């Protein structure tokens, strides 16, 4: 077995023993409810399976029970039957080509936590939760587990089907710090020791008393930057150390996993949520991982903007373009709720562990649209986004049954067919705006400041009416900047306002105290000739496809950069011209193929 990432005609794809596979996949948390056979029949060859080292919830805030049996039963006792069964269910009768990416949850089991109480995260609210990200004991034991797992994967009968291992840990398996709504960070003994060592290396002297941030300052409610020293308790330094700790741990596990699988399998990670999560969640050190040779792919969900309201752009919140430049795939987790989506408390009440868990999983974010038609629009919009940006993705059928209708499965199949065509062709991007995320800009600033300058700005960009590309500040060179009509720097540290800054190709520099509205950005970009496809609506585009979602119902205008024929994905209808008008409902989505004649 030899799996790697290759680039052909500008597209990143999977290569398994010389065979090319487009990076489109399917997964579910609940295997017994999943539709592996249906997605295989639709042509999908790539699947994800979840493996659990321990028996603790993946989300300790909600308290949801584990989705599957765990493997590490006791110090010297391993039971790989759950892994075997998970892979067997996906492979099925073996008549179709099937490849599997293993998501390996490394959160410590209950028995380990009882043995090592001093190694657990102690939050600023006083609560004690999962293992500390700084626990060397946990890292050592988790590596022992990974060694056993890689040995098993190489030897069991489905070895030729497994092509990737994705070490995952912390909150929701996404390397997110444990946040409870009243505070985060880590006051455990491993964290204090690691912070002391970090400070000594940074300042060149030992600290007799480790200056941990004062707990009452952790949850700031104003936009002013934190003060250091006596008032801030080295807050900015701690946040830099904290985020670097998450990234360094991922690097450590990636390197170990790569070696344990003899370099034969891909290794990936959830990380880089720079645009949606503030730095107290631990993701603001993605610049450390971009060039890491042991990391082949990143993964993240679409943004959870306004509880996943339908007529919203579920924006990307990671530096997709920078990752692609580094030769790394970025999988978007398309956990698209539909009218078939039921609350987990109703489908699998045995996973609930109390009223708080039930309440959490009845939140609006877990509810899909009321109708099948609107569900199809949302699915098509999500697919149109990854298609036009040429990103990897997996349909995440969380509890199973979310896409259980002939119309939805027809869309799933046609989406894959279209995706394959696109990934076997050279299709240029058409974005004229670059948006620059800065993973080092927030360490001394409040979460409210982050929300005003970054996540709110990305939400607003959804209604620009034109596509844009996402970069990381460390990868934004003068050569890259020259490709665009404008570059929007989020949380620009060089601006007088300390907010966002738009730099246009004519040299004009415009600053905002917080975010620009989509109307403001559109007006500035049009002064330098940026093409706007449909101002005020959601638009994704490249040189061959354009996806359009109506924000409001009524007559919606679509203007192409040139005279062409556009062919509708939904109906096959063709339209010729440069300016088009469609009667659409709010949230209605159409994907068009662009045909030059």
Q: Got a strand count? A: 25
* Strand composition percent: 15-25%
The CATH topology of the largest domain: TIM Barrel
Class computed from helices, strands and strand pairing = alpha/beta
Q: What is the oligomer described by this structure?
A: single chain
Number of helices: 16
Contiguous uncertain segments of 5+ residues: 227-232
What strand order characterises the main sheet? Answer: 4-5-8-11-12-13-14-15
The CA-CA distance between the termini, in Å, is 45 Å
Mean pLDDT, all residues: 93
Characterise this structure.
By secondary structure, the protein is an alpha/beta fold. It has three domains: 3-181 and 243-423, TIM Barrel (Alpha-Beta Barrel), CATH 3.20.20; 433-526, Rossmann fold (3-Layer(aba) Sandwich); 538-595, Immunoglobulin-like, CATH 2.60.40. It is 29% helix and 23% strand. The protein contains 16 helices and 25 strands. Strands 4-5-8-11-12-13-14-15 form an eight-stranded parallel barrel. A five-stranded mixed beta sheet has the order 17-16-18-19-20. A five-stranded antiparallel beta sheet has the order 21-22-25-23-24, with helices on one face. Strand 23 and strand 24 form a beta hairpin. Helix 4 runs parallel beside helix 8 (235-260) and helix 12 (372-389) runs parallel beside helix 13 (406-423). The longest helix is centred in the middle third of the chain and has 26 residues, at 235-260. It is globular and about 70 Å long.
């Amino acid at each position: 077995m030899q799996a790697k990432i290759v680039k052909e005609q500008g597209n990143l794809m999977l290569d398994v023993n010389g065979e090319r596979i487009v990076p489109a996949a399917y997964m579910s948390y609940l295997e017994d409810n999943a539709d592996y056979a249906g997605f295989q029949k639709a042509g999908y060859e790539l699947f994800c399976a979840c493996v659990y080292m321990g028996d603790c919830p993946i989300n300790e805030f909600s308290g949801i029970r584990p989705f599957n049996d765990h493997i590490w039963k006791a110090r010297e006792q391993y039971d790989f039957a759950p892994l075997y069964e998970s892979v067997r269910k996906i492979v099925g009768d073996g008549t179709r080509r099937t490849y599997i990416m293993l998501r390996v949850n490394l959160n410590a089991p209950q028995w380990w936590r009882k043995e090592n109480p001093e190694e657990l995260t102690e939050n600023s609210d006083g609560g004690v939760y999962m293992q500390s990200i700084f626990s060397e004991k946990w890292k050592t034991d988790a590596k022992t587990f990974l060694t056993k797992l890689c040995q098993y994967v190489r030897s069991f009968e489905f070895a030729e089907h497994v092509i990737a291992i994705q070490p995952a840990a912390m909150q929701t398996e996404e390397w997110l710090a444990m946040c409870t709504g009243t505070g985060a960070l880590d006051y455990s003994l491993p964290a204090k020791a690691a912070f002391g060592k970090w400070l000594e290396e940074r300042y060149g002297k030992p600290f007799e008393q480790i200056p941990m941030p004062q707990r009452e300052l952790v949850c700031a409610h104003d936009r002013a930057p934190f003060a250091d020293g006596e008032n801030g308790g080295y807050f900015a330094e701690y946040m830099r150390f904290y985020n670097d700790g998450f990234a360094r741990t991922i690097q450590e596990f990636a390197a170990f996993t790569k070696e344990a699988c003899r370099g034969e399998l891909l290794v990936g990670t959830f990380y880089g949520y720079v645009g949606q999560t503030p730095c107290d969640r631990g993701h603001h050190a993605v610049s450390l991982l971009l060039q890491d040779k042991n990391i082949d792919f990143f993964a993240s969900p679409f943004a959870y903007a306004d509880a996943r309201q339908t007529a919203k752009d579920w924006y990307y919140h990671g530096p997709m373009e920078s990752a692609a430049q580094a030769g790394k795939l970025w999988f978007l987790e398309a956990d698209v709720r539909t009218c078939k989506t039921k609350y987990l408390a109703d489908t699998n009440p045995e996973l609930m562990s109390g009223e708080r868990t039930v309440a959490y999983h009845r939140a609006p974010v877990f509810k899909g649209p009321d109708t099948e038609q609107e569900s199809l629009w949302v699915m098509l919009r999500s697919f149109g986004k990854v298609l036009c940006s040429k990103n990897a993705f997996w349909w995440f059928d969380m509890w199973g049954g979310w896409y259980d209708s002939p119309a939805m499965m027809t869309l799933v199949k046609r989406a894959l067919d279209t995706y394959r065509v696109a990934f076997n062709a050279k299709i240029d991007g058409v974005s004229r705006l670059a948006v620059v995320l800065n993973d080092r800009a927030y360490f001394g600033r409040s979460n409210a400041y982050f929300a005003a300058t970054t996540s709110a700005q990305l939400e607003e960009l959804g209604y620009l009416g034109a596509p844009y590309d996402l970069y990381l500040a460390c990868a934004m060179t003068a050569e890259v900047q020259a490709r665009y009509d404008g570059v929007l720097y989020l949380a620009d540290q060089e601006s007088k306002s300390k907010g966002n800054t738009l730099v246009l190709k004519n040299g004009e520099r415009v600053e905002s105290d917080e975010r620009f509205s989509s109307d403001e950005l559109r007006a500035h970009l049009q002064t330098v000739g940026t093409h706007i496809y449909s101002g005020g609506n959601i638009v994704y585009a490249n040189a061959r496809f354009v996806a359009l979602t109506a924000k409001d119902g009524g007559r919606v205008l679509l203007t192409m950069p040139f005279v062409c024929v556009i062919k509708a994905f939904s109906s096959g209808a063709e339209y010729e011209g440069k300016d088009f008008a469609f009667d659409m409902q709010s949230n209605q989505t159409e994907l068009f193929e662009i045909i030059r004649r």
